[in-house]
Amino acid sequence: MCECWQQICQAKEAVASGEKTAVPCEVVGRTSVDDFVEIYTMIKHGMLPDRVFFTEADLVLLRAVNKPSSHSVMAKVIGLSRKPECFELNLRMHFGSVRSEVSGFLVPKTKWEVIHLCSLSTTHREWAALRSLPYLTLGGDILEARITQPAPITEQQLAKVMQCQKVNEPQGRAIISSLATPGFSLIQGSVS
Question: In the chain, how many domains are there?
Answer without folding.
Answer: 2
